[in-house]
Specification:
mainly alpha, Rna Polymerase Sigma Factor, Chain: A, globular
Amino acid sequence: MLGVCCRYAKDKMEAEDMVQNGFIKVFQKINDFRGEGSFEGWIRRIMVNASIEYYRKHNRMMQLADLGEADSEASGNPLAIAKLEANDLLVLIQQLSPGYRIVFNLYAIDGYSHKEIAAIVGITEGASKSQLSRARSILREQVTKMERKIYGYAG
């Protein structure tokens, strides 16, 4: 579960706080688990919610991207991207601002729809789409920089 929280945290210490809060909720709500679906999935959902709640409690409100800032999707170099390690990508995701990081993780990794993200985070669907687009753009730029630095990719 630390891995789940690491995706939402800016560093490992913050992720550890999120995990601790998450497991407190797991133990408080253990009787609510109805046996429908996997126990791991149930805990994972609690960890995601605990991570989002952590930001709400610490007044780290998201920076909403303007719809005008949202870039169109561009394809990168698939060969160079395939060479990236999972840890490299985690570091890049952790460098995103909290708002971008939360929306990116909920959509791209955890599979939530923009409608669900809007309800969870308390933003509009349009803001969710805009933040996802901007997060992808930032990650794309960072991957390109990393490709140049580590793999010698000049594109």
